[in-house]
Amino acid sequence: MTATLTPDAKILQIGIIGMGDMGRMYARRLSGAGWMINACDRPENFEKLKQDFASNPLVNILENGYLVSRMSDYIIYSVEAENIESIVAMYGASTKVGAIVGGQTSCKAPEIAAFEKHLPADVQIVSCHSLHGPNVDTRGQPLVLIQHRASDEALDLVRTVLSCFNSQFVYLTASQHDKITADTQAATHAAFLSMGVAWQANNQFPWEVPRYVGGIENVKINISLRIYSNKWHVYAGLAIMNPAAQAQILQYAKSVTELFTLMVEHKTKELRDRVYAAKKAVFGGLPANHELLLSDDLLDKFSLSNVPPQDRTPNSHLSLLAMVDCWCKLGIVPYDHMICSTPLFRIWLGVTEYLFQSPGLLDECINVALENDTFRADDLEFTIAARSWSDIILFGNFNLYRVRFETTQNYFSPRFPDATKLGNEMIKTIFEKTKQRRLH
Ligand SMILES: NC(=O)C1=CN([C@@H]2O[C@H](COP(=O)(O)OP(=O)(O)OC[C@H]3O[C@@H](n4cnc5c(N)ncnc54)[C@H](OP(=O)(O)O)[C@@H]3O)[C@@H](O)[C@H]2O)C=CC1
Ligand SMILES: O=C(O)C(=O)Cc1ccc(O)cc1
């Protein structure tokens, strides 16, 4: 290791390759803590990036990843997962002798494979993953560190640099990371992506529809719009490139289809037995005094709609019934994965818990599912959407994923500013409210 790798020396130079949403957030926060940053995006973005960071003397914008790699002691690749192999193939050989390299991609198997293939043997590998989006307060959020090919000293250095986020470090291997994040993210995203496609297919903006009123509906709308306001490749990458994720998404689509079939066939006993078996598997281990993570009062505050919450229409909540059924079929107890939970996952778990554990609500939902056609057309489109997302992901088709995602993104885009504002508030409030009893 070179002399510059002393943890407390801020002469250490940090490289960031890929100055998109996450790269910029890292550059701002790390330079804010006094670290010197060398950063680049694609060469064609050089001038614009230079202008954007002109007022920050600690961020040195360079033309490309060769220059960043040559000058920096700890380099973070913050690029699209789909392109990690080709980008590391370009710049990896220029990495400064003895430096540490890591990546921010959401799926670690391809990232680590690219590092092993293209980085010189003297380079150490410590990867990371902030388990939240670029606009979330980093404090208290999980930040995974993967000491893959590195000394304890190198891990210490990475920890020292990233400690300014005040996140919660979680130490995992790459394969543990991929397995756990598949459990927390894959089916969660599939559910919200399917809601967006279904609403569009029925040509509706749900906050304008009186039956989409109330706490749980607010969460569905805000989070679905939040996902669609992000970049398509973030979700495509973690779903398509993580083999463990594919099994989850397939099972989610299967659960949606099978439950919907039981609903339209009015198979009361089968539906009830199946839902209650899932409830037992997922929530049966909770202590008797377990307090619900969320309450309707809390969630009623975050509505894009003008309709008062007391006019709530009971919903069949197919997306939530299927989520718990999916966890049950795969033997997943979501509470075991709180160490790798994103804000969206925690909220989604809170909502499922609310539906399954609030007295009377689950029975109301099963009755609506069997006897009431108010949500039938929505549930049909939701089922088709879930199947369609699972096909796209299983075929590994990035182009089709992009087209499908961006079509729905365009449809909802006028409401993104409002939804983002409301979503940030919602995440902040829920985070504060649940701080004392986060389940890890
Ligand atoms: N957004 C999120 O919520 C989170 C994302 N992540 C992961 O972090 C990574 C980055 O995500 P995010 O910042 O959101 O995505 P962005 O698309 O905003 O950022 C990626 C950046 O890398 C640039 N890039 C592409 N090729 C090169 C290259 N050869 N040299 C330098 N830069 C290049 C891209 O340019 P161009 O756009 O021109 O291709 C883009 O600006 C992804 O792997 C994602 O999965 C992790 C946690 C959360
Ligand atoms: O919270 C979520 O699930 C998000 O949508 C943000 C996100 C996206 C990708 C990640 O790798 C981590 C977090």
Number of helices, counting only DSSP H or I runs of 4 residues or more: 18
Uncertain runs: 1-9
Beta-sheet strand percentage? 5-15%
Number of domains: 2
Characterize the structure shown:
This protein is an alpha/beta fold. It has two domains: 7-172, NAD(P)-binding Rossmann-like Domain (Rossmann fold); 177-436, no CATH class. It contains 18 helices and eight strands. Strands 3-2-1-4-5-6-7-8 form an eight-stranded mixed beta sheet, sandwiched between helices. α2 (46-52) links the parallel β2 (36-40) and β3 (59-61). The protein is elongated and about 70 Å long. The relative contact order is 0.11. 3-(4-hydroxy-phenyl)pyruvic acid (ENO) binds next to α9 and α14. 3-(4-hydroxy-phenyl)pyruvic acid is lined by residues 106, 131-133, 185, 227, 234, 238, 342-344.
